[in-house]
Structures are given as structure tokens and as C-alpha cells.
Amino acid sequence: MGFEDNIRKVTPYTPGEQPENKVIKLNTNESPYTPSPRVMEALRGLDWDRLRLYPDPAMSALTESIADHYGVKPSEVFAGVGSDDVLSMCFLTFFAGNRPVLFPDITYSFYDVWAEVYRIPYETRRLDEDFRIVPSDYYGPNGGIVIANPNAPTGIGESREFIEDILEHNRDSVVIVDEAYIDFGAETALPLIEKYDNLIVVRTMSKSRAMAGMRIGYCFGNSRLIGFLNDVKYSVNSYTLNLPSIAAGKAAIEDSDHFREIVGRIKKTREKTAVELAELGFASYPSDTNFIFTKPPEGYKAKDIFLRLKEYGIYVRYFDKERISDYLRITIGTDDEMHMLIHILKEIIKK
Ligand code: PMP
């Protein structure tokens, strides 16, 4: 086979579909609302001539705003092209040992892909029958730990004490807490970065700040850990975020009113939708996120409902994967979109 033997072959992560036509899109946990108007102002105010130049590789305007907003030092912040980029850099930086990295069997399905692509040994730990993480599963020797809190696609969030217990038992490995959905529920582990020098807390602007298209993610950690992360980043690609993204991210983080308004709306719609789904016989997990993980009533298959909804132009997420193939993950849209979803589900369920 010659050169084929030298090619890195991987099974890639499969992102949710991005259909071109007008559909009700409840399949990739995007926000149904527009970003802060200050983002548009910032983009309009960009100096066109500055695009000739490379952006600030340290992204200081953004990382300083983030640090200021969360009350941490700028040296404790790292930003990247979505939290996927941040997480990928974390895997590359912090998981260079021979012991296996641990994460749950049901979680964000990108973790095993990064482990594979970077040749990082890993093991999964089974969520319990209620799809909860079992902390003692993470007590043994390991090469690192990744926990999504709230977890995806279950939507279940855990307390800070719960996360701290895992940290307490793992002083010798880096623990990454992926808080992509934290603004919709659960308790952040952020204050623990002062106490645990092995903790990284990852965030994104894709969900609660309605900026999936801008691709901005960031993480917090002890300055030394962030330093190691920067060393790797500067060894792969110095200029990750472009000039418009840096300006847009800064504007987004500074508009707390807009943030609170849209997160509040999504949480309200989520509670209403959960009740309506229950009335139709769906069994949902209590959600701390901007989506609901739900099992259709007896006699209905999740995959069939997923396909039927698609015929009506409503996209939700279905995972053809062990343990979760009976469930649907439904992103919370606007009230009108959820009203339409429930209306169509009533049609499907009665047949
Ligand atoms: N972590 C989790 C748990 C997610 O669900 C997602 C969204 N697919 C991400 C990280 C990555 O999001 P982004 O790259 O848009 O920040």
C-alpha cells in the first residue's frame, strides 16, 4: 500500500446536520435567539485596514474581558476557535502520559475522537442506570479525567461538591470540566481553580451567548496550566481567533443583560416543553441545559419519530448508539418552534 500505511486514519466526530432549507432546527443545541446587538456594533466598527495584519495571537482584548467578567486573572484564561478547539488543545497538552484518560461511556462524543486522533490511551466509565456519573469510578490511577457538567446528551448537571469530590481524589492528574451548558443550570466549578492547580474549566459562546457561528470557546485554569496550553497552541497555530471574532467575543461577554434575557427565555421554554412532552407520554431527564433528553412513549421508536419529524421539517438529534438509541435530544427553540414541535408530535403519536 506504500504511503497509505503512513496516513493517520480516524473515525471522525459526526456533527449534527446543517440543512440549507428553512427548517425548525432543534438538533445542534444552538440558540434560537440573536447574539447581543453589541456584537453587531463591534463588527460594524471594525477597522477594515486592520484586516491586512495578523490578529493579536494572545487575543488579549478578549481574554482580558473574559478575565474581568469572571473575576480571574488574564493569565488564567485561554481562548480558542470554539470550545472544540480549546478541548482539543487540552487533550494534546494535558494527556501526554501512558495511563488511560477517563470519561463516561455516555458523554460528548468528541472526547474519544480526540483521544484516538492524538493516540491517547483512554477508558470509559459507565454511567449508572439513571445516567448519572459515579464519582468512585474515577478514584483509581489515571492519565486525566474529562467530565461534561452538565453532561451531554443527558442534560443532567451535578453540584460543585460532586465535582470537587472527583478533584479531591485526583490530585495527580488534570481534570477537565466541560461546562458548555453551565449557564442553563448546574453549578460551576470555576471557583475551584484557586484551590486545585490541576483543574481546567471549559466554556463556550456557542450556546448561552448565541454565537455558534463565531466559533469562540475559552477555558480557565491555574496560570501554570494555561501556560502549558499556550506553549502547545503556539506550536500548532499562533493565530487561532481572527480579528472579527476577538472583537465580537469581547462585545458578547460584556453584555450581561442580553445574556440573562435570552438564557432566561430558554429556561422558561424548556420547563414548558418538558411538561408538554410529559403529557404526551415522553419520559425526560430533568435538564440543566438548552436541550431535553427524552424517551418516546411505549410503542414508539425514537428513530422513527426522528425520521417522521424530519419529514415535517423539524430536525432533532438521534444517536444510533448503545444505551441511548431509545432517546431523542431536542434543543430548546423559541416558544413558537416548540409549539410546532409539540403539535407535530401529537400528530405522530396518535397514529
Ligand atoms: N462540549 C460539549 C459538551 C458540547 O455539546 C459541545 C457542542 N457540540 C461542545 C463542547 C463544543 O462546542 P463549541 O465548539 O461550539 O464551543
Task: Throw out a few tags for this protein.
alpha/beta; binds 4'-deoxy-4'-aminopyridoxal-5'-phosphate; Aspartate Aminotransferase, domain 1; 7-stranded mixed β-sheet; globular; 351 residues; 4-stranded antiparallel β-sheet; Aspartate Aminotransferase, domain 2
The total domain count is 2
Distinct bound molecules: 4'-deoxy-4'-aminopyridoxal-5'-phosphate
Name the beta content range: 5-15%
Number of strands: 13
If you compute it from the alpha carbons, what radius of gyration comes out, rounded to the nearest whole angstrom? Answer: 21 Å
Helicity, as a percent range: 25-40%
Query: Which class do the helix and strand fractions yield?
Result: alpha/beta
Instruction: Count up the helices.
Output: 10
Termini separation (Å)? 54 Å
Strand order of the largest sheet: 2-8-7-6-5-3-4
Average pLDDT level: 96
Q: What is the name of the CATH superfamily of the largest domain?
A: Type I PLP-dependent aspartate aminotransferase-like (Major domain)
Unreliable residue stretches: none
Q: Largest sheet, described in full?
A: 7 strands, mixed
Coarse morphology: globular
3D structure, described in words:
The protein has helices spanning 37-44, 60-70, 82-94, 111-117, 160-168, 223-236, 243-254, 256-279, 302-311, 335-350, and strands at residues 24-25, 77-80, 101-104, 122-125, 144-148, 175-178, 199-204, 217-221, 283-284, 291-295, 314-315, 317-318, 328-331. It has 351 residues and is an alpha/beta fold. The chain has two domains: 3-33 and 257-350, Aspartate Aminotransferase, domain 1, CATH 3.90.1150; 37-255, Type I PLP-dependent aspartate aminotransferase-like (Major domain) (Aspartate Aminotransferase, domain 2, 3-Layer(aba) Sandwich). The N and C termini lie far apart (54 Å). The site of 4'-deoxy-4'-aminopyridoxal-5'-phosphate (PMP) has 12 residues, from helix 3.
